[in-house]
Design goal:
The complex is a heterodimer of chains A (479) and B (97). Chain A has 479 residues and is an alpha+beta fold. Chain A folds into 3 domains: 284 residues, no CATH class; 114 residues, no CATH class; 60 residues, Orthogonal Bundle (Arc Repressor Mutant, subunit A), CATH 1.10.10.410. Helix content of chain A is 41%, strand content 20%. The longest helix of chain A has 20 residues. Chain B is mainly alpha-helical. Chain B has a domain of 38 residues: Histone, subunit A, CATH 1.10.20. Chain B contains 3 helices and 3 strands. In chain B, strands 2-3 form a two-stranded antiparallel ribbon. In chain B, β2 and β3 form a beta hairpin. Classes of the chains: A alpha+beta (479), B mainly alpha (97). At the A-B interface, β2, α1, β9, β10 and β17 of A face α1, β1, α3 and β3 of B.
Chain lengths: 479, 97
């Protein structure tokens, strides 16, 4: 490859909002219902039905838009995007073309190359389509309209990204921001967050953009990274061969690690948008915007900075803890109860992360009660149990949500402080192991470790290791 | 009539609207559409410099529902609208992406 190329990427991200009901009707948005059990005349496009906008959709869209530093169209409205496809029973999708609710914002991303602002062109509200299942037996398709009318926001970025790393960082940023706002759970695998990648290449230094393609069906960060790499190389090869890139929509096949052009419908791009006469305009006054601003929670970037400053945590730890809102909440609630932020952070960073990994779970699935974790931290701090025992107790708290105080008491796990009892145990061990005593006297320090180990074992781990060390040493010296 | 609709245009509009038009219907549609465009030309003669574009005929805004589930499972009735059904779903000719 003689020439140097630059990849130019813009993203269209669809996010399913966490409302209880659909955008224009009172049907449930709950995932996983039997086909068509969450449907009504509105979301199945029956003539004469009247859509009425769910207020919460506007609230969420505003919250996301403000968090992404957007301007708000204070007079906004809905338009019909016309196309025929069985997943779209009205033969049009209600969306926003002319006056999307949010526009001209930005988010800041962080990659190894440093910080960078990615422009947000617009955010608009729209409805999701139904789901098609292909029936191989009867060679027909079956339509489930449970998802039809589920509220979406589409976040359209400017073509500001130049690498897969930047794309992933941008998506992570959006996901974290939206999760913190509670506007969506943003799960790529389950389709509550979907990203279409618009990509073109051009020679480094060129002013004009190259012809772009749009890539669909990307349902993991890894698939997105692979698809970007694959499409970049495909376009560069075409250009190097003196061929042209065709503007088209391509479907990524992550198993084959390649994409193919989706059958182009000649009329596909002629959507004949026009204002939806069923839906009156939405007017968002300054007071409404102020109310949403007032309610905005602390977002990850702010939390990250605060954890380092207020709790003195290293940046890495603060990053892990804030990478899930649920984890951050658990951390803060626990610290509120027992203090010792570094200690609480350590439990979550090491033992909680290890257990999650073993169980193949996400931080969102932690069900541990912060009061229990706080009690555990206190018991370790007050030396009621030693660290080895504490790790077992933590596991019980983590997996079964047991009350650590009761658990420790019922199992008799508290540290044995009675030095007399400890002393007689050690004496007994020394009696049984004259060789160790002899070795120690001969200058072999290792022998002491053996005795300490035996003692801890005899005490079933309940002794304080520091005390045992001290006592063993004293008793060996006395011999 | 100053606006003439070409055969290609009427063909294309027919495809977009999923309509199969006979030769006679096409001619009639061409006439109708030409007249509509003439009327728009007539409207364009008006000075609308200071007129806000209208997107809704009624002077209302902000008609909302609260986010509360009001609809229960009504699949049986909804599926009565399906020309054919199978396994609780609307059955349609096979679609290819």
């Amino acid at each position: 490859m003689s020439k140097q190329y630059e990849t130019v990427i813009g993203l269209e991200v669809h996010v399913e909002l966490a409302t209880k009901t659909k955008i224009f009707c009172g049907c449930s948005t709950e995932f996983g219902g039997a086909p068509n059990t969450h449907t009504c005349p509105v979301c199945t496009g029956m003539p004469g039905s009247l859509p009425v906008l769910n207020r919460q959709v506007v609230e969420y869209a505003l919250a996301v838009g403000l968090a992404a530093n957007c301007e708000i169209h204070q007079y906004c409205k809905f338009d019909r995007k016309n196309y025929f496809y069985p997943d779209n029973p009205q033969n049009y999708q209600i969306s926003q073309l002319y006056l999307p609710i949010c526009h001209d914002g930005w988010v800041e991303i962080e990659t190894a190359a440093g910080n960078k602002r990615i422009g947000i062109h617009e955010i608009h509200m729209e409805e999701d389509a139904g789901k098609l299942i292909h029936d191989e037996w009867e060679d027909c398709s079956l339509v489930d309209y449970n998802r039809s009318g589920v509220p979406l926001i589409e976040i359209v970025s400017e073509p500001d990204m130049r690498s897969a790393d930047e794309v992933i960082a941008y998506l992570e940023k959006l996901r974290m921001m939206i999760q913190y706002l509670g506007a969506s759970d943003c799960k790529l695998q389950e389709g509550s967050m979907r990203a279409d990648v618009n990509l073109s290449v051009r020679e480094v230094g060129a002013k004009e953009f190259g012809t772009r393609t749009e890539m669909k069906n990307l349902n993991s960060f890894k698939a997105i990274a692979r698809a970007i790499e694959g499409e970049k190389n495909r376009q560069i090869e075409l250009l190097e061969d003196g061929k042209k890139v065709v503007q088209e929509t391509r479907r990524w096949d992550d198993n084959k690690e390649s994409s193919h052009a989706m059958r182009s419908k000649e009329d596909a791009k002629d959507y004949r948008y026009f204002p939806d006469p069923d839906l009156p305009p939405v007017v968002i006054d300054d007071a409404w915007i102020a109310r949403v601003r007032e309610r905005q929670p602390e977002l990850q970037t702010e939390k990250l900075a605060r954890y380092q400053k207020e709790y003195g945590l290293p940046r890495y730890d603060a990053h892990i803890l804030t990478s899930s809102k649920h984890l951050a909440d658990l951390f803060e609630e626990t610290v509120k109860l027992c203090g010792q932020p570094k200690e609480v952070s350590n439990w979550l960073m090491t033992d909680a992360m290890r257990l999650l990994k073993e169980k193949g779970q996400e931080p969102e699935q932690i069900s541990m009660d912060p009061r229990h974790l706080a009690d555990l931290v206190k018991m370790v701090g007050e030396n009621v149990i030693n660290r080895t025992i504490a790790r077992d107790v933590f596991e019980a708290v983590f997996t079964e949500n047991v009350n650590p105080k009761e658990y420790v008491e019922s199992k008799g796990l508290t540290v044995v402080r009675d030095e007399g009892a400890l002393q007689s145990v050690i004496e007994e061990i020394l009696e049984k192991n004259p060789q160790s005593v002899a070795d120690y006297k001969a200058g072999k320090q290792k022998a002491m470790g053996f005795v300490v180990g035996q003692t801890m074992r005899a005490m079933k781990g309940k002794a304080d290791p520091a005390v045992v060390n001290q006592l063993v040493k004293e008793l060996l010296e006395q011999r | 009539m100053t606006n003439r609709i070409s055969d290609e245009t009427i063909e294309y509009v027919g495809i977009l609207a999923k309509l199969e038009l006979s030769g006679e219907e096409k001619e009639a549609a061409k006439q109708d559409m030409g007249k509509m465009l003439d009327y728009i030309d007539q409207l364009n003669e008006l000075d609308t410099e200071d007129v806000e574009p209208m997107s809704h005929v009624f002077p209302i805004h902000n008609v909302f529902r609260e986010d509360v589930v009001t609809n229960q499972d009504d699949r049986e009735n909804i599926l009565k609208n399906a020309p054919e059904q199978k396994d609780g779903a609307f059955k349609v000719p096979r679609t290819v992406e």
